[in-house]
Amino acid sequence: MAAIYSAAYATSTAVQGATLVPSPLLTPAQLAKADSGLPALLAVEPHQLILLLPQLRTLAKSNVVIQVSTLAANRDHASVLAARGSGLSIVYSRSADEAKRNALVAARIAATGHGVVHYGEFDSNKVDLGFSSEADVAYVKGEDKAANGNGEQAHANGNGAAATNGDATAPSQIEVAFRTAFAQQHASTSTYTGAESPKTLLIALGDARPVEQSLPAEIALVSLSLYRPLSPAQLRAVVPSSVETVVVLEQVYKKSSKWAPLYLDVVSAFAEQDDEESAPKVLSATLGEVKDASAAIKSIQDAIAAGTNPFSVGQVPSAGAAAPSSSKAPRQPKHESTYTKLLDEVFGSRLWLANAPESLLPSQNIPATSPEYALGHVLGANRQREELRQRVREALASSDINERTAKSLSAWLDDDRNARKAKALGDAALPSSLSSAEFAPKSNWIIGSEAWSHDLGASGLHHALSTGADVNLLMIDTTPYHLPADQQPVQRRKDAGLYAMTYGNAYVASVAVYGDFAQTLRALAEADAYKGPSIVLAYLPGGEEDSTTALDLLKQTKKAIEVGSWPLYRWDPSADAQGREVFQLDSEKIKADLRTFLDRQNHLTELSARLPTFGEALESGSGSKLVAAQKRKARQAFDALSGALEGPPLLVLFASDGGNCEKLAKKFATRARTRGVAARTLAFDDMPIEDLPLETNVAFFTSVAGQGEFPQNGREFWKAVQAGKLADMSKVNTAIFGMGDSHYWPRKEDAHYYNKACKDLHKALTGLNAKEMVPLGLGDDQDPDGAQTAYKVWEPQMWKALGVDDFESTEPELEPITNEHIKIASNYLRGTIVEGLQDTSTGALAESDGQLTKFHGIYQQDDRDIRDERKAAGLEPAYSFMVRLRLPAGVCKPDQWLAVDEIADARGNQTFKLTTRQTFQFHGIVKSNLKPAIQEINKCMLDTIAACGDVNRTVMCSANPSLGPLHTQVFHFSRELSDGLKPQTAAYAEIWLDQKQVVGEAVKDVEPLYGEYYLPRKFKIAIAVPPYNDVDVFCHDLGYIAILDDNKELLGFNVTIGGGMGVTHSMKTTYPRLANVVGFCTPDQGLEVAKAVLTTQRDNGNRANRKNARVKYTVDRMGIENFTAEVEKRLGYKLQPARPYEFTSNVDHFGWATGSDGRRHFTAFIENGRVQDEPGKPFKTAMREIAKVHKGVFRLTANQHVIIADIPPEEEKTIQSLLNKYGLDKTDFSALRLSSAACVALPTCGLAMAESERYLPLLIEKVEALMEESGLRNDSITMRMTGCPNGCARPWAAEIAFVGKAPGTYLMLLGGGYWGQRLNKIYRESVDETEILDILRPMIKSYALERMDGEHFGDFVIRKGIISATTEGKAFYDGMCPQ
């Protein structure tokens, strides 16, 4: 081992004198400062630096030198420079001689506690570069007697004269340390060569020695040995005032962006200087291998003269792309490539796109890409294929071939589309007539243009069908989605497919890759296998416009499939001979009225007549039609009941999303009836608008949604009013009460959104001559009693207007039904769930049962993307259920993963979610599938009880299997907590698993821990194992922080109490809160502590107001000391004092790692936890195939990713090959993307106000561009997004967060702690995407240029005064929205 290091580690056995480590991620013990005062050395390969990125900021403050040789990477510096924003110093050596000197410098700096990356072109197999003298060791320790100032002039001047522009600023402490260290080695941080007053200056970060000897008089060269730290002032200081052009030479070959890192640094340096100072022109050049120095200099001079930027000098290892042709290539829309890429994935080398733009010769033009032109290509290829078949027949008829070859040729002739049979001919002794023949089958495809579906009788489509040619047509329909009633009666591309079916000889499929990925794959494969013409109709609404977002495509596609305007089906004439159905309907939710669509065209009527089952198949998947007659009868019955009252009639209409406005309207109607008023209530949209002028008295209650819009159940009513369908209202007495929040839109330009819905309605009714009973009532959440403040004034006025103000009721007013009533009346969570599941008249459960099913892990939802379409078609909302599993610590076995995958396909929407609570979540399970799904979940030894509801939910635990036995201990502790706090009711087993309830009173359910009322609100627990706070332990009601002894054995846990995320917008009585550390307990005491905290909350939590019912509010109301004292009273002993601990991050660490037992673990990136197959990302298939062979377990992370854990070393290659095959081994995403998280939000979550999961990846792509501009691609910043303020993705603790307020509008927060130790604060109350990017652009640039070593973004914005720190939950709103 080299004498100047306390220890040396390497990831390769080839490195001499180093201890082999399985992963470049060193343990804290290995990074700890040695008693000798010498630093540690870690020798890694360039590509392994990517694995180190999550740990680089920790390394920046460690006594470690990371040594990297770039020789094995073709001298490419790209991987090393990716660490430039990590806080680590970076030293470069051009040769072995420099490496020996610079290694001493790096070691000296590292010995002071500043990590250093030392890289360059030197032997990668050595750590001992010749250090042996005591003087070297003394130098590294700083014990040498060399004068600190020795050599400072050498640093300034290098080998030539100093030439500065005079704006150097005071260097930082680390910069001074480097200057001194280099000077004492008789060297400098940079070397200057050439003229004192050059016109051109070359700044090189690479081996530019060949150029040094051939510099002309007007050119000088600065070669850098120190790249980080490198301040803008330093860069400007090395550029003489005479310089007109700066050329930056860098050995960066695999660029992640157009510009290399040092070039961006130089440009930024001159951008910062005073405006009156002139800046030189700066060019970027890639420095390759220079064999001819004169030619290299000339290439630089030519580039300067031509203004070429960027350009190359010398021979670059990876050749650049060929120069673009001057001919204009046909343009393929961005989104259309989704289908062409899919073809490439399915058919690989077999694929032949006959009219692909890239296959054309430069002399060809756009018409050459037309399907008509391509059809000639394909027919010609088919003729050539037939000619080959004829030559094979002739060869078989001759006597020139042996028996084996004859057998192979005969087999090929029987099935020339079989790739295996074609491959067998590769080894056959073929005659000369066949020696150059291409036997491998091709999958020929033609991409259709709009011309193909307009003239059905005479088009190229007709030609292809009539000839019966073996050709595949992919015809893309880009017609934007419209409601069926709004569509124009014109022929569309889908009509071409229906027309093709009448021929009887064509395979036809209708697909939509953004609607059903698996069905699209099946259709493409079947089309290829079909012998004859195949027509695949592909939907891509608005896809011809590159500006259309993928999210819009997804939404429009879903709507089109839902209403039947784009049905998914497959028609295979060859299936009949095989005993299969010719027609397969693939649309999941097609409606019965799709027959109208079928009968629209005459040729479809003929088709239906020929094959009656065709239409029947379409109708078989119809949704449940709401019968308007039933509604009318129910309404008439209620009217008859109300008519029995003697008072005046009153119609109470409400429009409400969250339910508060509906409750107030119904409460008002109930009070009216007690006064004798014949009151009835309806939602706005349930009232026939033509009947409204016939009413006598009407009271309107409405809240607002989005940007002042009407709630969902009032929008059709308002559309009708706007369309002039509401007649004169002069005979109707009206009153309006609105509910809003005057602070929800704080900007002056947005103030008109406050109670906009009721104001618009008031204006419209006034315009229709309606009589106003009382003045417009405006309820405001910001009033002392919220909306009740205004309502208490408005209601008495209504009684007076109705003439019932002198009424005095002798009966007590009925108390409104709350969750507490539902729980106590539920018979321990039974309610009427069983009866609701048996009711086939609706896809929903009763509202009260919907509250109870949460305790069973089930949420009722509906698809909000298609609410309007369902309503327009007379259907109830597309109800379905979200099912969440109880999965302690997020650990599951491979067979359980396979079961989850199968349940998602058979019962759900073919996808599942890895949640921020380390569990699985299904979406899209319809009511008829709900009970079978729960039973299938339980069959694989999992369950859903207590995954939601007012009980303790899934217990989270740090997912770090490399900790070995310790992680096993903590995992078992999480299981103990989860099982020990599980509800004891038998209702779950009775309802879902068909266990029989005990009859009579012999045995009654009992909840010893929860009681009949259960908890006031949900209760969450997390267990963190330092140094990683990946579970955000402080965000939970109760937390445990593992404390280890010196031998990494578990001593016990620090206990945290009082965290919580949920907030209500603009309601300052609600706020996020981080937990307090209150003491320490042993592992044996852990469950007792949990029960004591839970029961303290059970008995003291706020049951009157669910918005203030979480533990955090109980803690603040009682005081943390009093709350802790009550816990200790129930325990019967005091908690021990808390022990020291340290967290460093709360993000996941991707890629491979090795555990203490030698087993391997791979952390895979699953963006926002959505496990699905999509173009280019078949991750659901990938994980399924891995689960089939994996012999370990899977661990879900709290950041929505998955660890394939406990892989035996002998199985690593198998897992790696599958990861590689499906692209799941990709971990080189930007650090921002790797550190992001989003909740589900739209379209299924009923609480969502804006997009989240579907939108955050798109936003990150744009923020990534800002990060790239500032050289921060690999800097981790935690960014989280939620669709509402309830906090599922824990946004309130992120460095940057966005919380949905309305579609496209978000609350923006800054300043959270990188490892979850500090809440963020509201920076802007309302921002859209444009504003987000405008805010972040200068902020990110400032962070890149002005941050301190190792400083995280959240800390930076606080230090710079951009936002103030949130010191506690109650201070969350203090100092918000600084201007």
Automatic annotation (TrEMBL):
<dbReference type="InterPro" id="IPR045169">
    <property type="entry name" value="NO2/SO3_Rdtase_4Fe4S_prot"/>
</dbReference>
<dbReference type="GO" id="GO:0050661">
    <property type="term" value="F:NADP binding"/>
</dbReference>
<keyword id="KW-0198">Cysteine biosynthesis</keyword>
<dbReference type="InterPro" id="IPR006067">
    <property type="entry name" value="NO2/SO3_Rdtase_4Fe4S_dom"/>
</dbReference>
<dbReference type="InterPro" id="IPR005117">
    <property type="entry name" value="NiRdtase/SiRdtase_haem-b_fer"/>
</dbReference>
<keyword id="KW-0028">Amino-acid biosynthesis</keyword>
<dbReference type="GO" id="GO:0051539">
    <property type="term" value="F:4 iron, 4 sulfur cluster binding"/>
</dbReference>
<keyword id="KW-0411">Iron-sulfur</keyword>
<keyword id="KW-0408">Iron</keyword>
<feature type="domain" description="Flavodoxin-like">
    <location>
        <begin position="650"/>
        <end position="799"/>
    </location>
</feature>
<dbReference type="InterPro" id="IPR029039">
    <property type="entry name" value="Flavoprotein-like_sf"/>
</dbReference>
<keyword id="KW-0560">Oxidoreductase</keyword>
<dbReference type="InterPro" id="IPR001094">
    <property type="entry name" value="Flavdoxin-like"/>
</dbReference>
<dbReference type="GO" id="GO:0019344">
    <property type="term" value="P:cysteine biosynthetic process"/>
</dbReference>
<dbReference type="Pfam" id="PF03460">
    <property type="entry name" value="NIR_SIR_ferr"/>
</dbReference>
<dbReference type="InterPro" id="IPR009014">
    <property type="entry name" value="Transketo_C/PFOR_II"/>
</dbReference>
<keyword id="KW-0521">NADP</keyword>
<dbReference type="Pfam" id="PF01077">
    <property type="entry name" value="NIR_SIR"/>
</dbReference>
<comment type="similarity">
    <text>Belongs to the nitrite and sulfite reductase 4Fe-4S domain family.</text>
</comment>
<dbReference type="GO" id="GO:0020037">
    <property type="term" value="F:heme binding"/>
</dbReference>
<comment type="pathway">
    <text>Sulfur metabolism; hydrogen sulfide biosynthesis; hydrogen sulfide from sulfite (NADPH route): step 1/1.</text>
</comment>
<dbReference type="GO" id="GO:0000103">
    <property type="term" value="P:sulfate assimilation"/>
</dbReference>
<feature type="compositionally biased region" description="Low complexity">
    <location>
        <begin position="316"/>
        <end position="330"/>
    </location>
</feature>
<dbReference type="InterPro" id="IPR036136">
    <property type="entry name" value="Nit/Sulf_reduc_fer-like_dom_sf"/>
</dbReference>
<keyword id="KW-0479">Metal-binding</keyword>
<dbReference type="Pfam" id="PF00258">
    <property type="entry name" value="Flavodoxin_1"/>
</dbReference>
<dbReference type="InterPro" id="IPR029061">
    <property type="entry name" value="THDP-binding"/>
</dbReference>
<feature type="region of interest" description="Disordered">
    <location>
        <begin position="147"/>
        <end position="166"/>
    </location>
</feature>
<dbReference type="InterPro" id="IPR045854">
    <property type="entry name" value="NO2/SO3_Rdtase_4Fe4S_sf"/>
</dbReference>
<feature type="region of interest" description="Disordered">
    <location>
        <begin position="316"/>
        <end position="336"/>
    </location>
</feature>
<dbReference type="GO" id="GO:0046872">
    <property type="term" value="F:metal ion binding"/>
</dbReference>
<keyword id="KW-0004">4Fe-4S</keyword>
<dbReference type="GO" id="GO:0050311">
    <property type="term" value="F:sulfite reductase (ferredoxin) activity"/>
</dbReference>
<dbReference type="InterPro" id="IPR008254">
    <property type="entry name" value="Flavodoxin/NO_synth"/>
</dbReference>
<protein>
    <recommendedName>
        <fullName>assimilatory sulfite reductase (NADPH)</fullName>
        <ecNumber>1.8.1.2</ecNumber>
    </recommendedName>
</protein>
<dbReference type="GO" id="GO:0010181">
    <property type="term" value="F:FMN binding"/>
</dbReference>
<keyword id="KW-0349">Heme</keyword>
<dbReference type="GO" id="GO:0009337">
    <property type="term" value="C:sulfite reductase complex (NADPH)"/>
</dbReference>
<dbReference type="GO" id="GO:0004783">
    <property type="term" value="F:sulfite reductase (NADPH) activity"/>
</dbReference>
<dbReference type="InterPro" id="IPR011786">
    <property type="entry name" value="CysI"/>
</dbReference>
<dbReference type="InterPro" id="IPR006066">
    <property type="entry name" value="NO2/SO3_Rdtase_FeS/sirohaem_BS"/>
</dbReference>
